[in-house]
């Protein structure tokens, strides 16, 4: 255990969000394909979801009074960290199965790691959140791991 | 199922091959539609006085995942119907703004003939030539959705 990361903070590792189940529609696929500047007909027509369609599908929908004044929703999965300035993070996404209109998908997010490192200009905290997306047969469709750095 | 043309495509790919580059310029309308599609209300993406005066940015900030999407598009347009993206790693390193001229591209860095896969280093660069979003994509030939 480090001075920065208390034992209590580390007990949050393994914490999981409530599963969220959403339906994929042709209209939502088409809106996303257009908004990203996609040039492939199968996506623009909404026959198949392009990569990263899970981002709009599972972006948190919160009520207006739950947004901060700068328009951000608070991630309820995360504990309060002793460092708060967010730096660049990374994303790893595995694509296991295609997504099509009519599919019901369920995502579950897990806080899988919290650790610290000594950076050039002081301590850094890293945390990792894994989002598993499964279909109604329980088969893995997408696994996304986000790593974020705080200083 | 792998077709003859897909096998021929993998055989024609070599380490060092460069992907076609594509230019992206995100305007206010596209950025608004993108964040609306996500339900992302972060003001730095649509409220220019707020982004400049309160947050100190030179303009409206392009949402990080949109740059990640462009990495995918560059690879998929190169792959055509010969394969698909299996996985990606990327990070947003430098902020980009509405009106920036950005370019996506990549280079094949490793081939795996046993699995018919390839690793491709990918990037989005800004007009100054800085890589704003580096990444690496694993593709598999002969596997198409």
From TrEMBL, chain A:
Protein name per its UniProtKB record: FAS1-like dehydratase domain-containing protein
Pfam families noted in UniProt: FAS1_DH_region
Chain ranges of the FAS1-like dehydratase domain: 13-142
Superkingdom per UniProt: Bacteria
From TrEMBL, chain B:
Coiled coil: none
Xref: PANTHER family: HYDROXYACYL-THIOESTER DEHYDRATASE TYPE 2, MITOCHONDRIAL (PTHR28152)
Protein name: Acyl dehydratase
Annotated organism of origin: Candidatus Litorirhabdus singularis
